[in-house]
Design brief:
The chain has five helices and four strands, in the order ββαααβααβ.
Length: 176
């Protein structure tokens, strides 16, 4: 089987059902944002310790299921257990670090900087999903999962900088 089909040469692609839609369809855009997030997590995985591997692979798998549910217009995807796992991991990471007390600028060690990229792309993917939900009835846990996932990446970035001994760049904003 070849990697190219030529079926998308004119701006359409297939959903999981086989139905052809424009590549500008909001479901395709959301799946693309999830795919980009998944790729960034793959890079993050290469930059982190092996103790995070199963967690990151679990997240990547859940994102794949969310994308499949969007493409198939089903109510599948994230589960309450998936959301609870993220909340547990956020609590665990937060317990090991000092709260920043203010805004932090993305960066630090390479892994933390990549976790911040994952956080930002995750927020975009969440917004894309919300556009899909304006038109299609899908699993509301998917957006809840992405909301928690961006929090997870923030907590992970702080943790990664902490274990590497890299100070956060704090941003204090004066309101007038």
């Amino acid at each position: 089987m070849k990697y190219y089909t030529k079926t998308g040469d004119h701006g359409t692609t297939s959903l999981a059902s086989g139905k052809r839609v424009p590549k500008t369809d909001i479901r395709i855009a959301a799946c693309g944002d999830l795919d980009e997030l998944n790729a960034h997590i793959g890079l993050l995985h290469t930059l982190t310790a092996s103790n995070l591997a199963s967690q990151l692979i679990s997240i990547q798998t859940c994102l794949f299921h969310i994308g499949t549910s969007i493409s198939a217009s089903t109510t599948g995807g994230a589960t309450t257990d998936d959301v609870a796992m993220l909340e547990h991991e956020i609590d665990n990471l937060q317990a090991q670090t000092t709260p920043p007390g203010t805004f932090v600028l993305p960066g630090g060690c390479k892994a933390a900087a990549q976790a911040h990229v994952c956080r930002a792309v995750c927020r975009r993917a969440e917004r894309s999903l919300l556009y899909v939900y304006d038109s299609y009835a899908l699993n509301p846990l998917n957006t809840q999962y992405l909301n928690r996932l961006s929090d997870y990446f923030f907590a992970l970035a702080l943790y990664l900088n902490f274990i590497e001994g890299v100070a956060e760049k704090k941003l204090y904003i004066a309101c007038k």
